[in-house]
Write a structure and sequence with these properties.
Number of helices: 8
Structural class: alpha/beta
Strand content: 15-25%
Bound molecules: adenosine-5'-diphosphate
Strand order of the largest sheet: 5-6-7-3-8-9
Distance between the termini: 32 Å
Helix content: 25-40%
Oligomer: single chain
Shape: globular
Length: about 240
Amino acid sequence: MILFKNVSKVYKNGTKALENINIKIEDGEFVFITGRSGAGKSTMMHLLTCEDTPTEGRLEVNGVEPKKLSRRQIPKYRRGIGVVFQDFRLIPTMTVYDNVAFAMRVVGRGGRIIRERVTSALELVGLSHKARAYPEHLSGGEQQRVALARAIINSPKLIIADEPTGNVDPQMSIDIMKLLNTINKEGISVVVVTHEQALVDAFRKREIRIENGKILYDTGRPAKPAAKIAKEESVSND
Ligand code: ADP
């Protein structure tokens, strides 16, 4: 669960980037965070990844208050979160396979488990046939799918994607979102920061809109389709 309780962030130059933010995101949710440039989205991301800390209020991520972590604890905390960036951040000198495997090697995993997991992660993102390719020979969409495979490889509870479709063509953007949806269905919470309203409209998910450091609206979890509710009710009435 992610909990922002009266969270504010004021930068050293006095800029109020976030003001009194209250958000609760349950385990397994899929949430879009939207807003114009300068709204405060990156600041929220940096608080979640513990690259920065709130000036006021309380932030909890999976029961942990990031700002209370010691320097030594931060890498472990970050490994519990899979992060996907707009600019992919793949290692250019490593193959697709090694880019994904590397994320397991650095946490001390080895041998067969790496082979099994990397193989199935590349299958999930549809890139088994590119395992030996280098990032420079991939399209933007393919690079982002490698980044997604890398983000999930250590079984995080949460994926944070910061403008994941910013460098990807429109059709591939839909595919990236579908993949994030598939990952979410496996039980991983997904938080996607985007300013692409068309994508948000295409996927019926909770949207939290930020403007000038404040929540403009929060749609909450979308209601279940009527047919599904009816079916669940009939089951529980049995
Ligand atoms: P977004 O990601 O929605 O574009 P940001 O979180 O980057 O918005 O920025 C929110 C506000 O905080 C903006 O006014 C921005 O100029 C300011 N800001 C961001 N980072 C810093 C910083 N390190 N120091 C001072 N001001 C900052």
